[in-house]
Amino acid sequence: MEFRVESNMSKSQAFLLLLKMAASAAISYYTLKWLMDQVDPTRKQKVEAKKKANQIMKKLGITGVRLNEYELTIAAHLVDPGSMTVSWTDIAGLEDTISELQETVIVPFQKHSMFEGSQLLQPPKGVLLYGPPGCGKTMIAKATAKEAGCRFINLQPSVLTDKWYGESQRLASAVFHLATKIQPAIIFIDEIDSFLRQRQSQDHEATAMMKAEFMSLWDGLATNPRCKVMVMGATNRPQDVDQAILRRMPSRFWINVPNEKQRESILKLILANEVVSEDVNLRKIAEQTDACSGSDLREVCRNASVYRVRDLMKEEKAKEDKQQEQQDQQQTDQQVQDEAGATGGALEGAVGGATEKPEESQTENGQPALRPITMADLQLAVNKLKDTKNTASDHTRNMYS
């Protein structure tokens, strides 16, 4: 009998001991996790990214999709195609490229069921836009996503970098898992040469593993013909992109500097909503802006528009100075009148009353209206751009001479 009691007591003690050990392990785990979160410098950014991701997913109407913490981090960079302000009408001079993109990318995305039986008519899993900077590569990517009705993941290389070993691979995996869950989707990588550049033996192990994980998952898209996910990259240095990456991007589009006819179309588009004088000759401006990109042409138009603001400010400053002189003159005349009145004399010909102000052209809100953009404004802007480019070229030549 005594032996049975001692046996029961030992079982109770063992159970209590196990319970204490489990409680101690749980407390230690959560304490260690809390400490790790506190020392993690990216903890605040991760929390904000998760909140932003939930808001974007709700705005896009994506429900019933469960995402882990890595996928939520990537989801913070989702862009609603409906909220994009860029469309084909905002791009001028690239009609041939747009037409080819519509045939190659947009139609297979929009009419996927029609081409489901053919593997050759499926949208490409990789598209590369390459060419000089400032020629509209990013605008084309956004317009493609908008016209195709795809979710747009604006992937930045910094998102995939993490100080903890193995986290970069998990984030790279989350990119494709998220895109697959919310398809149709386009994964856009701007300046892809900085992220997926040619691999070398001296590359860091973590970077090499992340690239390998990215390419392995990218190949998985090609094996699933029903998957409507595409990777689109943009670069002005295609020679620096890894050959294995270029193989995964069979559709490549050369976005070159616009020619004279294209420059005229771009100038018309940029100035479409501006007040332009009748003396403006856009063909002549297009002739004078040889080798200029679309970004350069926009800067020319912006500077030309700023010149009229500068003139308006000068006119307002001159009017303020004139009004101040009139007020000073009136105060002087008033003092003379007061002195004459105090001595009993009368001042003849004293200036009195307010002077009439010339009528000014004003907008509906009462502000002075800007004058139209003139040919002289555009000419000054073109000369300024040329001077800037020549100065930059001379500086670069002196650096490497």
UniProtKB/TrEMBL annotation:
Substrates-to-products reaction catalysed: [protein]-with a C-terminal TM segment(out) + ATP + H2O = [protein]-with a C-terminal TM segment(in) + ADP + phosphate + H(+)
Subcellular location: Mitochondrion outer membrane; Peroxisome membrane
Positions of region (Disordered): 315-375
GO biological process: extraction of mislocalized protein from mitochondrial outer membrane
MF terms (GO), sorted A to Z: ATP binding; ATP hydrolysis activity
Gly residues composition bias: residue spans: 342-352
Residues annotated as domain AAA+ ATPase: 123-260
Gene3D superfamilies: 1.10.8.60, P-loop containing nucleotide triphosphate hydrolases
Biased composition (Low complexity): 326-341
Compositionally biased residues, Basic and acidic residues: 315-325
Keywords, comma-separated and alphabetical: ATP-binding, Membrane, Mitochondrion, Mitochondrion outer membrane, Nucleotide-binding
Membrane disposition: Single-pass membrane protein
InterPro entries: AAA+_ATPase, AAA_lid_3, ATPase_AAA_core, ATPase_AAA_CS, Mito_OM_Translocase_MSP1, P-loop_NTPase
Gene Ontology, cellular component aspect: mitochondrial outer membrane; peroxisomal membrane
Source domain of life: Eukaryota
Similarity field: Belongs to the AAA ATPase family. MSP1 subfamily.
Annotated PANTHER family: AAA ATPASE, PUTATIVE (AFU_ORTHOLOGUE AFUA_2G12920)-RELATED-RELATED (PTHR45644), FI08533P-RELATED (PTHR45644:SF3)
UniProt-recorded name of the protein: Outer mitochondrial transmembrane helix translocase
Lineage of the organism: Eukaryota, Metazoa, Chordata, Cephalochordata, Leptocardii
Gene this chain is encoded by: LOC118410959
